[in-house]
Amino acid sequence: MVKNVLYKLKGLIAVYIIMGLVSQLMNVLSIVYFQRIIDILSEIKNKADITDYIIIPLLLYAITTIACCILNYADNYPSTKIENRIYYNFKLLAIDKVSKINFLDYANYGTGKIIQIVENGSEAGKNILFGFFIEIFYSLVPGLLFSLIVLGTYSIRIMFVIGIGYVVIFIVSNLMLKKLYNIKEKVLIETEWTSNKYVRALMETMIFRVNRKYKQEKADIGKAYDEIIKSETKVVMIHEFFFAFFYLLVIFVKIIIIIMGIWKLNISLGKIVALVMLVDNIYSPISEFNIMYVKYNLDKVAYNRYVNFLSLKDDTNLFNGIELMEKPFKIKAVNFSAGYGRRDAVHNLSYEMEAGKKYAIVGKSGAGKSTFVKTLLGIIKGTKGNLFINESDISTINLDKYYQYISYVSQDAPIFDGTILENITMNKEYAQEEIWRVLDMVLLKEKIEGLDKKLDTNIGEKGIKLSGGEKQKLAIARVLLQDASVIILDEATASMDYLSEEKVLQNLFSEKKDSLILLITHRLKAIEFVDKIFLLENGEIREEGSFAQLIKNRSNFYELWNKHAEQQMK
């Protein structure tokens, strides 16, 4: 996974690390030359001689400090590109995962939780790869190494004092880490739970308003935010305690160096100044490493949750299996059951459907209609029996290749941010005459011709707003342009008025008379003209037959039809 994230970044990372190496070297050398300047100024009494001795150290000091400034500015280019590319590569990996994840695992997580896991995990992954590992080789190791080499030439005793200080810092940081780890995990769990509720509150506007749920939902989310804020504050305070403790320790070490330099080591003023500056150069990497190490371990909590998500089982049939050698012309189920986990949602289904005919699935809410459709798409897997596409069991076929023959339209017909033309053609090439013809068939031609930019009118988030029925018409226009042999309309006309629905469906049936068309609907008026109806109850097919046959039987479908007719009369 890390290899995928760092793809094409190896060269830029190498340049960035080399820039850091040179920058740290220049920084340490500038301290050395600064020390020589101070020693020259303090030791030479004759001012006339100072110029002769100081010119070269001063020039070298200027070169090294200016080089540091230039490098510190220049490294913003590779660092920004690397940091952002790592972050967005993690997000792209999540999209790739969602494109092939086992549907049941995806459904168990929920959209809001997945969004938060991906956001937290991508940020944590960026911090781990860039903010920890790359940064160690960019600044910490070179800075510490060069500073220790120079310090060793000044005083071994002071190196020993610094080493003791580091041991103290290491012990304190590890004690702090255990406390922070538990708090961070709690924050992540709370954030994911809250995100799920937050997304639901934003998306289910009508339901929440009508059922007056916003007040309670806001209170629940607010309470969760209070807990998150409390935990985040604890994390910050513990972090800041470490910084305060560290700086006190550095001040203490500097005082010891000054005392030892004057009374014990008898070294020059310049070297004392250099030693004090080098302490910052040595302890800053040590401090940064400990802080980074603590953050690294905290980020691992979010990162591991992200990795666990990426490790969920893929749909093994999505890109593997038998490729259909011809378009699906027959679908047959034999005692087929399927469901979610241990629970079957459809039971012992036996039916046949073939190209050139129209079918409908009806039933009360919870009867198993949506699961029925998901089994046809291979999203929900069978637990027993067989479901054949042509002569191949659906569990053995390559679903990605199978989908090229299928057009599927749901009740929430997706409209993408772009032009009407882009939404209809989905970036495929069609003649203008053909596009206007299908728009006429879905009763949108007149509306679009009345727009200033016509097919180039922007719709979606940044453009004109379409009604629910118009969105569904646009989605069916896509189907009319596509060459699908299986067309599934899952409540795809539910937002249209009855006259529009009847006209659009009649045009679809006529245009796609060679395709297998399946309607899933609760509006029974739409199914009078299909060849066969399947009535589902509790996940089983209770009745099947033509509309006329089922009405004549005066059984379950007849009762459902009468109730529907009564509701329409009201």
UniProtKB/TrEMBL annotation:
Pfam families: ABC_membrane, ABC_tran. InterPro entries: AAA+_ATPase, ABC1_TM_dom, ABC1_TM_sf, ABC_transporter-like_ATP-bd, ABC_transporter-like_CS, P-loop_NTPase, Type_1_exporter. Residues 14-298 form the ABC transmembrane type-1 domain. It comes from the Bacteria. The chain crosses the membrane at residues 12-34, 54-74, 128-150, 156-177, 241-263. GO terms for molecular function: ABC-type transporter activity; ATP binding; ATP hydrolysis activity; ATPase-coupled lipid transmembrane transporter activity. Residues 329-563 form the ABC transporter domain. It is a multi-pass membrane protein. It is found in: Cell membrane. This is ABC transporter ATP-binding protein. SMART domains: AAA. Its main location: membrane. Keywords: ATP-binding, Membrane, Nucleotide-binding, Transmembrane, Transmembrane helix. GO terms for cellular component: plasma membrane. Gene3D superfamilies: ABC transporter type 1, transmembrane domain, P-loop containing nucleotide triphosphate hydrolases.
